[in-house]
What does this fold into?
Amino acid sequence: MDQGSFITLEGIEGAGKTTCMAQLRLLIQQAGKSYLETREPGGTQLGEDLRQLLLGHKHTGMTDDAELLLMFASRAEHLQQKILPALGRGQWVLCDRFTDATYAYQGGGRGIAFSRIRALEEWVQKGIRPDLTLLLDLSVEQGLERAGKRSAPDRFESEAMEFFRRVRQSYLELAGKEPDRIKVIDASRDLDEVLAQITIVVNNFLQEKT
Ligand code: Z5A
It folds into this structure.
């Protein structure tokens, strides 16, 4: 049976993950792979309900620990119900955000110690990690300008610039520690240039897998 891979997209607000997911999907389709496209928080009924709690404005004063645990509750359900079964069937899993977002937002942004996040990662994921992560990197100003044109800000998008600077910095530090897995894409460029970078990285990865 064909062996699947787990690919994630990451970046700050407005980095272009949704836009770039379409290109990733196309490349995986062109390679003839069966795939599951999904997102976090979310991806299951429970996960999508948790997403509404996490992104909506009903619980603006949510504690940092509650936010972290809800992210991992969504992830636990997602892994058991969707991601692991798909990988078990030999499918490719294309996921909009995963645990790198937790290190960046709850770790870098909120200031929760990475060691506590790692403990939850080990407990919930039991060694399951993405095989490839595309980190769409651009300045906070550019990201928020793009995101702002799109819709009303969610609970995260209402944070201050300094929060997003820490998030971006954490993402770049994660990429520095794991350059083989996390590929930094310059998302500040015109869309066709960004998509060209993604094509090169994903095609290289597909070649390595075959
Ligand atoms: N979160 C967390 O804190 N901890 C966790 O563990 C996880 C998540 C998993 C939901 O994420 C929130 O959850 C997120 C972090 C937190 N914070 N927020 N908000 P989300 O991924 O669903 O939400 P988002 O970051 O706002 O993503 P988005 O809405 O999907 O935006 P995007 O995908 O990055 O951007 P886009 O919609 O593709 O593009 C934005 C606009 O820019 C759009 O008009 C595009 O046409 C345009 N665009 C895109 N690329 C370009 C280029 N290259 N040039 C010009 N214009 C462009």
Q: What stands out?
A: The two ends are 13 Å apart (CA to CA). The beta strands are 6-11, 35-39, 92-96, 132-137, 182-186. The mean pLDDT is 96. Residues 64-88 form the longest helix (25 residues).
